[in-house]
Amino acid sequence: MGTILDTIRGPADVKRLSIEELETLAQEIREELITVLSETGGHLGPNLGIIEVTLAMHYVFDSPKDRFLMDVSHQSYVHKLLTGRRALVKRMRKFGGACGFLYRFESEHDHHGAGHAGTALSVALGMATARDMRGSKENIIALFGDAALTCGVSFEALNNITHCTKKFIGILNDNKWSISKNVGAISNYLNKIITHPYYNSLHKKTTDVLQKLHLGDVIKLEKKAEAAVKGLIVPSSLFEEMGLHYFGPIDGHNIKDLIRMFQFAKDAEWPVILHVLTTKGKGYEPALARPEPFHGCGPYDIKTGEFKTSNAPDAWNKVFGNLITKLAETNQKLVAITGAMSSGTGLSGFAKAHPKRFYDVGIAEEHAALFAAGISTMGFKPVLAIYSTFLQRAYDMIIHDICLNNLPVMICMDRSGCVDDGPTHHGVFDIAYMNPVPNLIQMQPKDEDEFQDMLFTMSLHNGPSAIRYPRGPAPGVKIKETPKQLEIGKAEVIKHGEYSDKFKGKRVAIWGLGNMLPMALETAKLLEKDGISAAVINPRFIRPLDTGTLEFLGRNVDCIATLEDHVLRGGFNSIVLDEMHKLNLQIPLVTTGWPDEYIEWGSIPELRNKHHLTAEATARKIREALKVKKAVDQDRNPLGEFATV
Ligand SMILES: Cc1ncc(C[n+]2csc(CCOP(=O)(O)OP(=O)(O)O)c2C)c(N)n1
Q1: Which of 149, 175, 179 to mutate to test the pocket of ligand 1 (most atoms within 8 A of CB)?
Q2: Of the residues 32, 226, 292, 365, which is catalytic?
Q3: pLDDT tens digits, one per residue of 582-597
Q4: Comparing C-alpha atoms, which of 469, 419, 478 is closest to residue 443?
């Protein structure tokens, strides 16, 4: 027998259901998500928690005319299922499948793509303001989590709402969890509301009143009526003082109550904040028991909730966590700071081992960078561990506070390079944005052991330093007992080539940055089969670049190649090209990296293949470059000899 979910082609099909049918549909969606995500992985916990809220939103409002904004938008899977994207959701985050976030180019129901936290309220306010300017009537609804209130930008929006519009609907989805347990004073404040004796005693009364507000009633929210409803709901001075009309807490799993409250908000002529309580992972025992790993997870066994793991070596983030925890044992000045990503950055172990030197500041990268700057001025060594993509938020603080003041902050950029989440999460801009900043050194390790040496070197460096490393398994090399201090700005020649005249015209030096070094070695092997001699270099330092090694090689080979897990525009290659120009090295530069576009989601091998980040493609380009150089040199020199550079 077909399910109700089978009949849902779009929001119109949701609107014709009874409450009982909506409740059945909620259950079917739960089962669908648990099953699909057990194969694909994805944001299971947040989506299981938001099913009833999303159903009620589609029941009351008219998407796509009415606009739904979702903060981070990792909780948008249910919305996708209700807007004709069930087949895409079955291939969640896979190459050619659904984007794991709202994505404007995927559906007319997605009005703003996001993946970073704290954007929904401001974008929604922009839309509401534009609606008022053009005189149209659509509803703008911003759904944001309790952890979005740890982002300063959310407060910038709240502060601005009454100044811009009279009609605005915010739904605060409070499940007490960020990825880990939510932190900070706002979180405590929300908890106070929930545990307020008022709430418990009045909750039943509230529900009774809501029952009386008949479905389909158009409630004209006169001041009196508002007061009547509000009297039964715990007041919140935080929102009220900002001129916002707060209603809550509301049971976020009671579809009937939600529909009535949303209808009420729809008819209100004031900015409204609805405080909805939900349970992350609702309906799936393993996700309830372990909300943190099930926030965003890989494939799992449905019955046991165990994750399907591979035998790959430890991931870079885990290696980082272990190394920095170990380093903090001997260096009592090390302090680790995370912006709500303690497990993601691998710092959970550090938090346990050194609780007095660990700070989770919430989703507040700008604050985290300033906080680190402050700490560093008092003789401590802050380790600012933030994903490359989220660090974009703190760029001004890096330039204006950390580097201008030449402060010894260790900036550790996880997820540098492409990741499977897609364009919101790729860390492919950090070389470009770090390169122009004075005083900063930046590096990337080739393996775990060098990672240890680099962290050690950073811990001894008396100025700002940054290190980038990717997502996924590290190579799996053994880490030596005692780290070694590296010479700043010195590259490592992994393999020398033949530089003699015997190979003239057939010599290349390949610089493989960090996780691209194995591809550089593979490229060298392919070229050697054709009699081309290839040197392979591990740059170690992006800034300062080892210009001595570059010059030596540049004067002894016929072509230089760079490989990087970063966009080509402004990437490592452009630093090399710049130096080649200064050194007057007139030989071709072959570049491999990501093109000048937003890269989609999918597995890393699929993405690399599609965008030609492969050894084969690099070798092909090098052969071409050598051919062109030969032709040009012969043209320049009628005797047919190669011009020496
Ligand atoms: C700027 C930024 N920093 C960090 C993250 C990583 N992140 C993704 S979801 C999330 C927690 C969101 O919690 P909340 O807003 O309460 O929504 P919930 O997951 O509970 O539904 C975090 C920290 C991010 N997406 N953006």
Answers
A1: 179
A2: 365
A3: 999 999 999 999 999 9
A4: 469
**Is the bond leading into 464 cis (omega within 30 degrees of zero)?**
no
Q: Give dist(CA 533, CA 528) in Å, integer.
A: 6
- Exactly one of 85, 357, 381, 393 is catalytic; name it: 393
Active site residue 393: yes
Atom 23, ligand 1: residue with shortest CA distance: 340
Alpha helices (H) along 16-160: 19-40, 44-49, 51-60, 77-82, 86-89, 120-134, 152-158
544: cis peptide before it, omega within 30°? yes
Q: Which atom of ligand 1 is nearest to the CA of 151?
A: 1
Q: Where are the beta strands (DSSP E) in 432-553?
A: 441-443, 465-468, 492-495, 507-512, 533-538, 541-543
CA triple 51-54-58, angle to 5 deg: 140
Give the span between the Cα atoms of 166 and 303, in whole angstroms. 49
- List, in sequence order, the alpha helices (H) in 196-236: 197-212, 223-231
Domain 316-468 adopts which CATH fold?
Rossmann fold (3.40.50)
Instruction: Please say if the pLDDT value at position 232 is more than 50.
Output: no
- In this predicted structure, the answer to whether residue 189 has a pLDDT above a threshold of 70 is yes
pLDDT band at 235 (very low <50, low <70, confident <90, very high): low
> Which range has the worst mean pLDDT, 96-110, 304-318, 438-452?
304-318
CA of 147 to the centre of ligand 1 (A): 6
Q: What are phi and psi of 75, to 5 degrees?
A: -100, 25
Token reading at 164: 């811009």
Q: Is the CB of residue 265 less than 8 Å from the CB of residue 169?
A: yes
For residue 344, pLDDT beyond 60: yes
Which position has the higher pLDDT, 579 or 311? 579
pLDDT (tens digit per residue) in 348-403: 999 999 999 999 999 999 999 999 999 999 999 999 999 999 999 999 999 999 99
- Ligand 1 site residues, Cβ closer than 6 angstroms: 46, 71-72, 74-75, 116-117, 145-148, 173, 175, 177-179, 280, 339-340, 363, 365, 390, 393
Which one-letter amino acid corresponds to residue 16? R
- Can 365 be counted among the known catalytic residues? yes
Options 1.10.645.10, 3.40.50.970, 3.60.21.10, 3.50.30.40; CATH for 5-179+236-285 is 3.40.50.970
- Of ligand 1's listed atoms, the one at least distance from the Cα of 144 is 15
Q: DSSP assignment of 618-641, as one string?
A: HHHHHHHHHHHHHHHHHHH-TT-P
How many angstroms is it from 51 CA to the middle of ligand 1? Answer: 18
Q: How many CA atoms lie within 13 A of 309 on its CB side?
A: 9
Q: What is the DSSP string of 538-602?
A: E--EEES--HHHHHHHHTT-SEEEEEEEEESTTSHHHHHHHHHHHTT--S-EEEEEE-SS----S
Distance between Cα 390 and ligand 1 center (Å): 11
- 315-354 burial: b if 16+ Cβ within 10 Å, else e: bbbbbbbbbbbbbbeeeeebbbbbbbbbbbbbbbbbbebb
Which CATH number does the domain 492-635 belong to among 1.20.120.450, 3.40.50.1970, 3.40.605.10, 3.40.50.920? 3.40.50.920
